[in-house]
Amino acid sequence: MTNSIAEIESTNLILIAGANPTENHPIIGNITKRAVTRRRARLIVADPRRTELVELAQVWLRPRPGTDVAWINGLMHIIIAEGLWNKTYVETRTEGFEELKRAVEPFTPAYVSQITGIAETDLVRAARMYATAGKAMILYAMGITQHTSGTNNVKSLANLAMLCGYVGLEGGGLNPLRGQNNVQGACDMGGLPNVFTGYQPVSDERVLGKFERAWATGVRLSSKPGLALTEMPAAILDGRLKAMVIMGENPVLSDPNAAHLEEALKALDFLVVQDIFVTETAQLADVVLPGASFAEKDGTFTNTERRVQRVRKALNPPGNAMADWEILRDLSARMGCPMPYRSAEEVFAEMAALTPSYAGISYERLEKGGIQWPCPDRYHGGTKFLHKDRFARGLGKFHAVEFQPPAELPDDEYPLLLSTGRMRYHYHTGTMTRRSRGLQHLAPEERLQVHPDDAARLGIADGDLVRVVSRRGEMAARVRVSERLMPGMVFGTFHFQEAPVNRLTNDALDPVGKIPEYKVCAVRIEAL
């Protein structure tokens, strides 16, 4: 997030795009409710499904899935045409405005309505509300990113925020809601194929030299970016990738085109899975290494607002389980590269010394509370919001983004559009939550949401068992007839191994971010 969670209550307007905070980020969902009901913030929700926050919104933009660039460009077209953009901000703090202006010129309300299904009046009202708010926050999540156009969707939202001068001020900004508790921290720590910690590129010789000197292994580090997880199945099947270590991840249920992924994992020469339970993925492993849970180890988590927080060991791990860093340290030693770390704190201290945005953070300081990066030195108090006086690159760059449709749309053979997500009661692949008797009682099985019009046409009723088929696979699930959806759309979650929805989803990737198109998948439904 460019800004902080607390700022949601001090802003004038909140635009929620492709996110369902009350179910997937409930603390932020409650804060958003409070901002609207008590602080009188105005609310715009952009989502194909009727979420709980739609009931509090002044405007609900209901685009067809996969058409986000079109409606965002449409907002900017109106803001520019009506002279509502922040001219001083654009002139002094950005570049590329003329290219953006030309790119959004065709996106008239009528044209956008034709692509997205959004009423012209709603689009105009939302554009005027956002542009004249004085300060506004954009909150977005995987409904924006999990598309073949995911990178362009985010760039478009950034264009919109800069156009109105809302980046670099309190109560503004562009704020992704992370889907897991330490996703931000994992990315910060180099859990991406092209960077070291703090997003320092592996292709930069100065960065390589710094890490080579610090680690002093005598090994030349590679400047070649690695593969994203979504690129690995193809690499396995064509012989480029022979072995994998999978830590705390269950891709057999969470990755798209899951049958193809499972085929690839079975083709590996050697698979190691490190986890706290024997997951569906661990069942395919040659070796399972038992990890410790969050309550059984020391460390840090970095949350969605860039806040680094201490995790303190409350009890010893069971049996032979070990903290992840201990497993990796010992594994590295057995492979000929000893690591001298004696504690999680030593690992963190080395990382902070090599990472400018974390340089001022230490366990000692974190004992007094969390700190938001960037924190460049030990006297710095952390950063509440980013880009206050200037962007990291100097001038903020507008990107002229063209609309491209999803990789797969409904047709005569597969007439319905499937989108996937999560529910309130279960988390991700259910590795932990489905072992809770209380949560299992509340949500014991998958219920595929189907619009009443489609249910009537298919001759199915609430609770009926159906087969759902895509070009990649099939699954069976019971139906929940729901008006939360638009006609022609169905919605499923990926929590249930008995109804593995990701056997259906499309593994077409965003060309930059390499994220799959979970949100748009053509299917048909057959009554059983």
What would your notes on this structure say?
The protein has 528 residues and is an alpha/beta fold. Among the domains are: 5-177, Dimethylsulfoxide Reductase, domain 2 (3-Layer(aba) Sandwich); 416-527, Barwin-like endoglucanases. It contains 19 helices and 21 strands. The chain has helices at residues 21-24, 26-37, 68-81, 87-93, 97-104, 109-116, 120-131, 142-145, 150-163, 183-188, 205-215, 232-237, 251-254, 258-267, 324-334, 344-354, 363-366, 437-442, 452-458; strands at 13-17, 42-46, 59-61, 94-95, 136-140, 174-176, 243-247, 270-275, 287-290, 299-302, 307-311, 371-372, 396-397, 416-421, 447-450, 465-469, 474-481, 489-493, 506-509, 516-517, 521-527. Strands 14-18-15-17-16-21 form a 6-stranded mixed beta barrel. β16 (465-469) and β17 (474-481) form a beta hairpin. α3 (68-81) runs parallel beside α9 and α6 (109-116) packs across α7. The longest helix has 14 residues, at 68-81. The radius of gyration is 24 Å and the shape is globular. The two termini are 45 Å apart. 42% of the residues are buried.
What attributes characterize this protein structure?
21 strands; globular; 528 residues; 5-stranded parallel β-sheet; alpha/beta; Dimethylsulfoxide Reductase, domain 2
Tell me about the largest β-sheet: 6 strands, mixed, barrel
Instruction: Please name the CATH architecture of one domain.
Output: 3-Layer(aba) Sandwich
What is the spatial order of strands in the main beta sheet? 14-18-15-17-16-21
What is the CATH class designation of one domain?
Answer: Alpha Beta
Number of extended strands = 21
**Backbone shape:** globular
Which percent bin holds the helix content? 25-40%
| Strand residues, percent | 15-25%
- For the record, what is the CATH homologous superfamily label of one domain? Dimethylsulfoxide Reductase, domain 2
Radius of gyration: 24 Å
Instruction: Fill in the CATH topology of one domain.
Output: Dimethylsulfoxide Reductase, domain 2
> What's the number of helices?
19
Please identify the structural class as seen in this structure.
alpha/beta
Q: Are there runs of 5+ residues with pLDDT below 50, and where?
A: none
Q: How far is the first residue's CA from the last residue's CA?
A: 45 Å
Mean pLDDT, all residues: 95
